[in-house]
Amino acid sequence: GGRIPSVLALHQNNPNPFNPVTDITFDLPNDSNVKLEVFNMLGQKVASLVDGDVPAGTHTVRWNGKDSNGNEVATGVYFYKLTTEKETLTRKMILLK
To answer: pLDDT tens digits, residue range 25-69?
Structure first.
């Protein structure tokens, strides 16, 4: 669909809980520089899924449950954070093995 979302939104990942792969969808009302990052409970960044300019629209990014070094992360709660030039949105997801 060619419809551009009217507001920035970060949707709950699907499936959740997940193992080992999950999809994260976000709505972007304007072209923007975007970061989509995954953090553990300690606030440590484990993965960077998006880092750069993204066109307006709805985008889905898959996370394979691996950290930046390609290692599978442990079971537990993770946070995914969407950062644009204007806003930051965060949601929680659960990896169950």
So the answer is: 999 999 999 999 999 999 999 999 999 999 999 999 999 999 999
- Regarding pTM above 0.90, the answer is yes
Contact 62, 23 (CB under 8 A): yes
Residues, the chain: 97
User: How many CA atoms lie less than 13 Å away from 89 in the CB half-sphere?
Assistant: 16
* CA nearest neighbour of 97 among 76, 80, 66: 76
With contact defined as beta carbons under 8 Å apart, do 78 and 36 qualify? no
| Residue the block writes with tokens 């992360």 | 73
Determine whether 82 is exposed, middle or buried from the number of CB atoms within 10 Å of its CB (0-12, 13-18, 19+).
buried
Contacts of residue 21, defined as CB under 8 A and 6 or more positions apart, other chains included, come to 62, 63, 64, 65
